[in-house]
Amino acid sequence: MQLNTKETLRDLAWILAGNITLAIGVAWFILPNNVLTGGLAGVAIALEPLIHVTPEIVINVLTVVLFVAGSFILGKKFAMKTILSTICYPLFLSLLSFLAAHYIPADTFIMDKYLATIYGGALMGIGVGCVFRTGASTGGMDIPPLIINKYTHIPLPSLVLIIDALTVLLGAAVYGLQAALTGILSVWVSSFMINKTMLIGGHDAKNVMIISEKYKEIMNKVHERLERGTTILEANGGYSNERKPVLMVVVTKKQLPELQHMISHIDAEAFVIVTDTNEVQGLGFTYEEEL
Fold first, then answer.
1. For every residue of 125-138, which 3-state class applies, written as one string?
2. Cross-referenced InterPro entries, in alphabetical order (predicted)?
3. Percent of the chain whose predicted confidence (pLDDT) is above 90
């Protein structure tokens, strides 16, 4: 019960932090500079010249409508987590817009279009990523990617990028091609930051596959000098049709040069494959052995 309470409080903190960050990006960078972008902000800006309704009102209304639709499709658990964003995001957005209009000098957030695009997109991506980490949503245009992800399992950052790009193209008919291309830059920055934010807490590492006749000697050295575990995989050579063991070891980036030097010293003809690993969990990475 204590663990569940701790996890719930942690999720609430991520959701609140994400919504505040998202609202800052929209209220202080995107809306004041009329930057076409993804999400409800992009939809609201694209529709403003057509329906003559302020973007804040459009965002607040669509946030509630899409929340209701998402609750039916994604279920009760999603609704319970997302309702906080549905309440907080419009509240934060209205509050920050009010502060910008009445208590902050008028030209404070009027800036170069590209600066607003980059920094606004980055803040939006960080905010959405914080909320996505909990399995919830900021509401609005984040809900369609979650629905599609449920049925297709396409990665969320990719879906957000696609849908946001379509939103920007919608605005091209109103603001022109140059504005749309600038908006796509904001969408890319936002998608990049969503991906990076969702990986917070993970550990970057290198996954190394080693094929060598001296794999046992290499394995012992890895255990002894690097204090890393190893896994022996059974493989079959495509050309020789011979069975060969493949030694797999995951090391930190700092340990990779030492491992490469060790392998070359033991077997200069060893075949080595090194790949990036975005997240590693387990002994030696996310927790240490208790003595």
1. HHHHHHHHCCCCCC
2. DUF2179 (IPR019264), N-reg_PII/ATP_PRibTrfase_C (IPR015867), UPF0750_membrane (IPR051461), YitT (IPR003740)
3. 18
